[in-house]
Write a structure and sequence with these properties.
Distance between the termini of chain A: 19 Å
Shape of chain A: globular
Order of helices and strands of chain A: EHEHEHHEHEEEEEEEEEH
CATH topology of chain B: TIM Barrel
Radius of gyration of chain A: 16 Å
Radius of gyration of chain B: 17 Å
Helix content of chain A: 25-40%
Strand content of chain B: 15-25%
CATH class of chain A: Alpha Beta
Number of helices of chain B: 10
Oligomer: heterodimer
Number of strands of chain B: 11
Number of helices of chain A: 6
CATH topology of chain A: Rossmann fold
Number of domains of chain A: 1
Largest sheet of chain A: 7 strands, mixed
CATH superfamily of chain A: Class I glutamine amidotransferase (GATase) domain
Structural class of chain B: alpha/beta
Helix content of chain B: 25-40%
CATH architecture of chain B: Alpha-Beta Barrel
Order of helices and strands of chain B: EEHEHEHEHHEEEHEHEHEHH
Chain lengths: 210, 260
């Protein structure tokens, strides 16, 4: 069973439907007992870091996620969920969970154009590819041609670059997949990224981190 | 680098797609769910559903369509038509749509844009604009005027000013439909698209006039659109999303490579 953490941050049903579509059992929940009992955790999210952290703390979900991480359960972060794993976010000047050392940053104001000369518009919204993909069981199906769906104005910047598992170009290069130990996290939305996204979710559902 | 998005648009009336579509493989051409799956598999980057059901009582049918589409395709899709309140928006988003679009509803009640952006985030709120060229005049300095009712009613609002205002109100994207070009299959309204794109900071989806792949090339380069809406080009089987993307890739437009 996979717990999809419900903390009132955006569209969780799309994650639930994608997981069911690939044939895995899951439950959208904020029940600490349920989360304690599951084998895997997906931590999604759309919205702002500040209100998300308030909502997590109110329910004790911050502790539940940390606990699952230290017990070695496979955890997948998506979009805002990914950012929340970091120490601190520039968005609303928010203290986050701190599972990965580093900041969540906004795209710089002084970069005006993408590599093809198109104007940079924030949020970064649409389909983009992943480069410098690390050898990782959850990412093993991704090729350089695959693209994923992004919607975000901030990105995670781990201090230790070993925790960067893939990068994406949008005016700058930014980490689009990060991870450490039993945690892997994407800035994009695998549940909205067609077959390559579903393949990533399949790999996550089979992943046994050592 | 972001890819340019290719977005098929489906009109839905009381739960059925309205345009006849020539398909093989026993696809039910009246079923929006099967149609969406077909376009998903042929490489659509997003899908737009426009609900043209007039009766308000029958709008729940659309919510059921949205729910079934969300179980079937795993790319973003938006739903427009008849969205008048935050409650209407919430119902569509809860059912699984990524975005909602408001058009004439926002002309009469611009606050719905800001209310939607506050409640669900700007990325969920698409402003649809129907625009006609009327020539430059005092009230319409850009020469492009907002129209409603399929172009029959002129609203006395400058299209460029409306786009700028909508961005300030919190619209996350603009779907820009040229009534002059719509249905002609002679190409998108490039001047209009470029004007709006260059003077706003949110993505522009060009709509109206697509008849051949070269038209998409023009609007995504000269027109500076971020995405292109297509309808009859693919509905009647003349082209597929995949063939259009192949053409664009050959012209060095960055598009998401399709897997089929």
């Amino acid at each position: 069973m996979i717990a999809i953490i419900d903390y009132e941050a955006g569209n969780l049903t799309s994650v639930e439907r994608a997981i069911k579509y690939i044939g895995c059992r899951c439950r959208v929940t904020n029940d600490l007992k349920v989360i304690d009992g599951v084998q895997r955790i997906i931590f999604p999210g759309v919205g702002a870091a500040g209100s998300a952290m308030v909502s997590l703390k109110k329910r004790g979900l911050d502790g539940a996620i940390k606990d699952a991480f230290y017990r070695g359960k496979p955890i997948l972060g998506i979009c805002l969920g990914t950012q929340i794993f970091m120490e601190h976010s520039e968005e609303n000047d928010t203290e986050c969970l701190g599972l990965i050392q580093g900041e969540v940053r906004g795209f710089p104001d002084n970069i005006k154009t993408d590599d093809d000369g198109s104007r940079i518009k924030i949020p970064h919204m649409g389909w983009n590819s992943i480069r410098d993909i690390s050898a990782h069981p959850v990412l093993s199906a991704i090729t350089g041609d695959d693209e994923f769906y992004f919607v975000h104005g901030f990105y995670p910047a781990p201090v230790d670059t070993d925790y960067v598992l893939g990068v994406t170009r949008y005016g700058i290069s930014f980490p689009s997949v990060i991870g450490v130990k039993n945690l892997v996290a994407t800035q994009f939305h695998p549940e909205k990224s067609g077959e390559p996204g579903l393949n990533l979710l399949r790999r996550f559902c089979e992943w046994e981190p050592c | 680098m972001l890819s340019k998005r290719i977005i098929p648009c489906l009109d839905v009336h009381e739960g059925r797609t309205t345009k006849g579509i020539k398909f093989k493989d026993n696809i039910d051409i009246g079923d929006p769910v099967e149609m969406a799956r077909f376009y998903y598999e042929s490489g659509a980057d997003e899908i737009v559903f426009y609900d043209i059901t007039a009766s308000h009582e029958k709008r729940d049918i659309m919510i059921d369509v949205v729910r079934r589409v969300a179980e079937t395709i795993f790319i973003p899709f938006s739903v427009g038509g008849g969205i008048r309140t935050i409650g209407d928006m919430r119902a569509v988003l809860r059912a699984g749509a990524e975005k909602v679009s408001v058009n004439s509803e926002a002309v009469f009640n611009p606050d719905i844009i800001s209310q939607g952006a506050t409640a669900f985030g700007s990325q969920c709120v698409v402003l649809g604009m129907d625009v006609k060229y009327v020539g430059k005049k005092d009230k319409i300095p850009s020469g492009y005027e907002i129209v409603i009712n399929g172009g029959r009613k002129y609203m006395g609002i400058d299209a460029l000013q409306w786009a700028i205002d909508a961005q300030k109100l919190g619209a996350g994207e603009i779907c820009l439909n040229s009534i002059d070009a719509d249905g002609t299959r002679d190409g998108y309204e490039l001047n209009l698209t470029r004007l709006i794109s260059e003077n706003t900071d949110i993505p522009i989806i060009a709509s109206g006039g697509a008849g051949e792949p070269a038209h998409l090339y023009e609007v995504l380069t000269v027109g500076k659109a971020d995405a292109a809406l297509i309808a009859s080009m693919v509905h009647y089987g003349t082209y597929t999303v995949s063939s259009i993307k192949h053409y664009l890739a050959e012209q060095r437009v960055k598009v998401r490579k399709t897997w089929s």
